[in-house]
Amino acid sequence: MRGNKSAVNTVAITPDGKKVVSGSSDKTLKLWDLETGMEIFTLSGHEDSINTVAITPDGKKAISGSSDKTLKIWNLETGTEISTLQGSNYSVAELAITADGKKVVSALKNETLKIWDLEQRTEITEVNVLSDWGYELVMTPDGTKAISKVRDQNLNQTLKVLNLETGQVIFNININNYWASALGITPNGKKAIAALYDSSDIRFMYTDKKPPAADKPIIKVWDLETAEVIFMLSSECYAYTYTDNINYVTAIAMTPDGKKAVIALDDTTIRVWDLQTDQEILILIGHDCWINAITISQDGKKVISASCDRTLIMWDLDTAEEIIFTGHQNSVKTVAITPDCKKAVSGSDDKTLKVWDLQTGQEIFTLTGHRDSITQVAITPDGKKAVSAANDRTMKIWDLETGMEISNLPSQPYKKAGHEKSVTEVAITPDGKKALSISEDDNAIIVWDLEKNQAISILTANLNSVHTLAITPDGKQVLSGCRDNIILWDLETGTEFTFTDNEYYVRTLAITPDGKKLFSGSRDGLTLWDLETKMRIPWIGCGFLINKIAITPDGKKAIYDAYNNNLNVWDFEAEKIIFTLTGHEKMVTSVAITPDGKKAVSGSSDKTVKVWDLETGMEISNLS
């Protein structure tokens, strides 16, 4: 899918799997038809890069988050803005919509999460995660928990699992000397996944010195009930070694059945791992730049990736066939797929989101309204709405049926239930009623009521740079990936548990569909955790940093990004990459899988969106 003038930062798929919305650094969003690959709408209105986008469960609205510190709600049927959610002084980095479509959670770049009521379009509550750098959050499907990554001033990271009802930390996952580069949660909310890498390599990035030879990244899966590692992927499954031998996981996700992990690497590839066999089963190659986000369809057959190559690509996890969605004018940062597998939503640095038809590959809507890059997008369980987060410190709720903005969750200081900096991530609870958001520096996770469009609670704890969140499928817990650990939060009691056996910055998390295991992506690859025992599960993984990962709904495959502009499809049973999806000209920035698991949609810095056939590994469409 081509058409963006800058990197595609975010992407989301409508619940019916027919459309996808992408957001770009060109300040616009685009709605694409996944069947034709054609652009349906261009959504304009943001004043800065679009960082994130999410679609409501009914598929009628999309919410985008931007660097202009706002969220915008779009009507996906008309392609018009419904509302702008304001109340932050920081960019919206991530967002997610609750399963009931009533709330959206936005993450700001000041480490604050905001929860918005999508009906009232007001902030419900705010969570201060007490950190100086936040990137990502993931929520359980039921919206009761979220996982965020936080770091301290010494660049040590922790994953925090939050109770979205009480705002309390359930537990922390301590990843020690590692950073988490990506977070994901399985569809059943029982497991979380994160990509981890040696934090010493990151410290060298802040100096003029070159880092020592780096250990390969690992991917871990945690049990969100016990915070124990139940699986770890650490083999050298990368196809390209980045400068100084550091390979980063940029995104991570698991299939709904928890059997596969999808990992995006800084070599622009996406790797799919079979978590049962510890084998890489697929390498998806097609992006030409960093992959910002990945999302998996509810059927686990497709994954969509968003990249700074300005494209979205939808991949078939069985065949590795791809469809490219183009239309963003800048890097695609995030992507999400509707539950019915008919649509995908992408968010970009062009400040727009785009809704795509996954059957035709055509753009349906372009959602505009954010004033900065979109950092994250999430779709409500009914596929009718999307919630986007952006660097404009706002989150927006969009109607995916009309393409209109429904609401703009306020951008204001977190003490007033808003984010002060960019919202870096947002996640929606499985009932669609709440959303969780984190921001760059305000050290809080904000829980939003998506019906009232207002914040209802704030989760605060000793969070160190929350980078990512993952919500368990039952919605009772949330995992946060931080600089040096993972924290599990009980959303009902507010208690927290820290996973201590982690060494790298957690960049992504994914929970297996049964909610029993957690994958974490970081500098050293993927780590598998047992969420009941909260202990690591030894396994062979890929030795590179993973930023984004998505898992097919059946849990059999995972798609992840890499630095060589490709995506890899991993078969968990075969324990190997079965496809490498190639075609993007720049780094892949995001990916999503259709609910039926047959296709994937990717966004890239080459300004395109691609749709991939996950059964053949072939490109299906290039949306432009």
From TrEMBL:
The keyword rRNA-binding does not apply. It holds the Pfam family WD40. WD repeats lie at residues 1-42, 43-84, 85-126, 242-283, 284-325, 325-366, 367-408, 416-458, 581-622. InterPro entries: Quinoprotein_ADH-like_sf, WD40/YVTN_repeat-like_dom_sf, WD40_PAC1, WD40_repeat_CS, WD40_repeat_dom_sf, WD40_rpt. Keywords: Repeat, WD repeat. It comes from the Bacteria. This is WD40 repeat domain-containing protein. It comes from Anabaena sphaerica FACHB-251.
